[in-house]
Inverse folding.
C-alpha cells in the first residue's frame, strides 16, 4: 500500500483551501457542501479522538496533526491522544471521543462509537473524488476516463457507473482491467487509440499516468493518486481543473458517511 510521507502533508491547511476553491469552481459547492448533499449529514462538533498507531512502518510524521487540522476545518472538535495504539484508544474513549480515527499501514478507519457506523478511507476517497468529478458543471458529456482501478479507483469507477456515466477504464494490470470490465460493465480504454475527455478520474501511485492525448481544454482531473497524474506544464497548457489533495477530502468523506 502506498503510504503518505510527511512531505505529502506539509501545509495541509493551504492544500485544503486550494482544493476547496477548485471544488467550488467545478461543482458550485465547497467540499462541505458536496459531502452534505451527497451523504445527507452535517457535523455538529462531534468529538473526534485521533489515535496514532505504531504498527508496521510506524507513525508518519504529522499524519495525526494533519488529521486534527482536517477535522477542525470540517467542524469537528478533535484531539490527538498522547499515547498510541491500545493505550491511545483507551485514552480517546475515556476522554469522550464519539468518533475514533486511526490508521495502520493497510486500513485507515473512522468509527462512530454512538451509532456503530464505520468507514474505510479507500472506498470513501474513491467515491468522493468520483462524486466531485461527476458534478462538473461544464462537462460536455457523460463520458469519464478512470485510470487506476484498485482499492480507491474501483469504488470510484463503480460510483460513476451507478450515477449513469459512461466509464472508460484503464489499469496497468490487465487482469484487473478485464475483471473490472466484466464486474462493472465499463469500456476498456485503449491508449493506442486515445480520445479526449472532459472528466478524468485517476487513482494510481504513479506520476504522469494521464497522457496528453486524453486531456481536453478545461477538463477536470479528479485525482487522489499520489504523486500527481499530470505535469504542471500540461495542467497549465490545457487549463486543467486539478482536484488533488493528500488526505483531507477522503477523511471528510469518511466522517460525513458515519454521522
Ligand atoms: N488523496 C487521498 O486522500 C488518498 C490517496 N491515496 C493514494 O491513491 C493511490 C491509489 O491507492 P490504492 O487504490 O490503495 O492503490 P492500489 O494499489 O490498490 O491501486 C492502484 C492501481 O493503479 C494501477 N496502476 C499503477 N500504475 C499505473 C499506471 N501507470 N497506469 C495505470 N494504472 C496503474 C495498479 O495496477 C493498481 O491497480 C495511492 O497513491 C495512494 O497513496 C489513497 C488513499 C487516500
Ligand atoms: N500508523 C500511522 C499512519 C499510517 C497511515 C498509512 N496510510 C496511508 O498513508 C494512506 C491513508 C491516506 C493515504 N494513504 C500513524 O498513526 O501515524
Amino acid at each position: 500500500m502506498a503510504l503518505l510521507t510527511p512531505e505529502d502533508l506539509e501545509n495541509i491547511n493551504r492544500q485544503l483551501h486550494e482544493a476547496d476553491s477548485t471544488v467550488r469552481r467545478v461543482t458550485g459547492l465547497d467540499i462541505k457542501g458536496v459531502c452534505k448533499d451527497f451523504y445527507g449529514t452535517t457535523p455538529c462538533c462531534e468529538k473526534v479522538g485521533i489515535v496514532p498507531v505504531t504498527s508496521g512502518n510506524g507513525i508518519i510524521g504529522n499524519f495525526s496533526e494533519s488529521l486534527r487540522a482536517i477535522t477542525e476545518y470540517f467542524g469537528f472538535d478533535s484531539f490527538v491522544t498522547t499515547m498510541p495504539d491500545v493505550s491511545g484508544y483507551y485514552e480517546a474513549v475515556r476522554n469522550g471521543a464519539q468518533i475514533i480515527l486511526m490508521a495502520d499501514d493497510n486500513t485507515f478507519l473512522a468509527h462512530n462509537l454512538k451509532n456503530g457506523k464505520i468507514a474505510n478511507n479507500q472506498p470513501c476517497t474513491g467515491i468522493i473524488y468520483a462524486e466531485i468529478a461527476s458534478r462538473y458543471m461544464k462537462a460536455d458529456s457523460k463520458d469519464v476516463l478512470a485510470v487506476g482501478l484498485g482499492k480507491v479507483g474501483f469504488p470510484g469507477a463503480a460510483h460513476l457507473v451507478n450515477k449513469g456515466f459512461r466509464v472508460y477504464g484503464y489499469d496497468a494490470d490487465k487482469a484487473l482491467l478485464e475483471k473490472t470490465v466484466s464486474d462493472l460493465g465499463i469500456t476498456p480504454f485503449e491508449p493506442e487509440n486515445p480520445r479526449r475527455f472532459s472528466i478524468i478520474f485517476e487513482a494510481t501511485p504513479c506520476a504522469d499516468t494521464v497522457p496528453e492525448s486524453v486531456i481536453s481544454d478545461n477538463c477536470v482531473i479528479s485525482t487522489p493518486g499520489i504523486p500527481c497524474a499530470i505535469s504542471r506544464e500540461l495542467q497549465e497548457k490545457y487549463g486543467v481543473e486539478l482536484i488533488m489533495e493528500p488526505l483531507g477530502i477522503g477523511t471528510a468523506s469518511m466522517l460525513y458517511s458515519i454521522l
